[in-house]
Amino acid sequence: MKFFEIGQEIETSIVAITDDCIFLDLNAKSEGILEKSELTDENGIVKQNGKELSVGDKIKVFYLGNIKGEMRFTTKIAGEKADKSMLENAWKNEIPVEGKVEKEIKGGFEIKIGNSRAFCPYSQMGFKEKEEASFYVGKVLTFKIQEFKEDGKNILVSNKLVAQEVFQGKIKSLQESIKEGISVKVKVISLQKFGAFVNFVGDESGFKALLPISEISRSRVDDIETVLYVGQELTVSVLKADWKNEKVSVSLKSLLENPWDNVAKKYPVDSKHDGKISRIADFGVFIQLEEGVDGLVHISDLDTDRNTNLRKVYKVGDKMSVVINSVDADNERISLRPASSIEQDKTTAKYLDNQDDSAGETYNPFAALLKK
């Protein structure tokens, strides 16, 4: 029979899952036993670090001892297992313990673990998103013992250390599925001036990815609240994944058709188009020809001098007819110049057509005088 030290951590495989127990492979004649309830969530699903477990999966556990002839293991010390000797052993071997947050006291919280009481400072409660103290009172949470003194009369615990380890485990699992270039579903959780923070749909770690404002649309977005809202679900592309620094950015724009692919055909040089002013700069005005395609009318082509404050002459949203000077699709640039409106051109063309129809008649200046 293989021998383990009490508190020893091992990584093994699941060989079977029954109604009450999880059987573990020990490379011996018998299997190790882990209580299924330790890893069963409120929906009855067996999980560790946010990942659903099944036969064959790897799992990390701690050796409790040979109890009634069975090799017993645990993922944490709780309930009847949490006597003083087990708590001391949990401290020495860094085994997680489960305790109830009894009440808020000076500097932190009083935690009941089995029949023992421990202290968790404010700084060691929670991780990432801190909650009000009242949020934790009455909850059963997992802790790690940082100090065990005076035969268990003075116990200092940390919930933060456990949360960090759980988060890192979930991030590792997330890292395996979130790769640069793939399309994923996300949910908007907050809006900022520089972009939106999103969670990956189905991920339980709470990891936040950033959707920069420049990656939302092919058009310029000035007010993010006009195009996105909290709770909105989107399909995005993973732009960059820096797991070392826990920074992932995503793009909505990259999944949209790029209108610049066809601008050379749609906007040939010297063709005339109606657009609207999308942005005003000191050096000219930008005209939106269509969603995601803007061109520039340089100040030198406007009916103003170089010292004119263009923002006093033009307004965003104003219509302007323009002629295409040049198109640089690779760098997404179009040079424009002002022109008469297309509506004016149609009116003029109609007038000229009418003139052409009357031109066939013999012009008689005396008849013209008699009509007066």
Give a nutshell description of this structure.
The chain is α+β, with helices and mostly antiparallel strands. The chain has helices at 84-93, 133-136, 160-177, 263-266, 310-313, 342-359, 365-371, and strands at 9-17, 21-24, 32-35, 47-48, 51-52, 58-67, 70-74, 97-105, 108-113, 116-121, 140-149, 154-158, 183-192, 195-200, 209-212, 233-242, 247-251, 272-281, 284-290, 293-298, 319-328, 333-338.
SSE topology sketch:
Blueprint: E1 9-17, E2 21-24, E3 32-35, E4 47-48, E5 51-52, E6 58-67, E7 70-74, H1 84-93, E8 97-105, E9 108-113, E10 116-121, H2 133-136, E11 140-149, E12 154-158, H3 160-177, E13 183-192, E14 195-200, E15 209-212, E16 233-242, E17 247-251, H4 263-266, E18 272-281, E19 284-290, E20 293-298, H5 310-313, E21 319-328, E22 333-338, H6 342-359, H7 365-371
Please count the helical segments.
7
Strands ordered across the widest β-sheet: 1-2-3-7-6
The CATH architecture category of the largest domain equals: Beta Barrel
Under CATH, the topology of the largest domain is which? OB fold (Dihydrolipoamide Acetyltransferase, E2P)
Number of domains: 4
Oligomer classification: single chain
Radius of gyration: 35 Å
CATH class of the largest domain: Mainly Beta
Strand content: 35-45%
For the secondary structure, the number of strands is: 22
**Percentage of residues assigned to helices:** 10-25%
Order of helix and strand elements from N to C terminus:
EEEEEEEHEEEHEEHEEEEEHEEEHEEHH
**Overall SS class:** alpha+beta
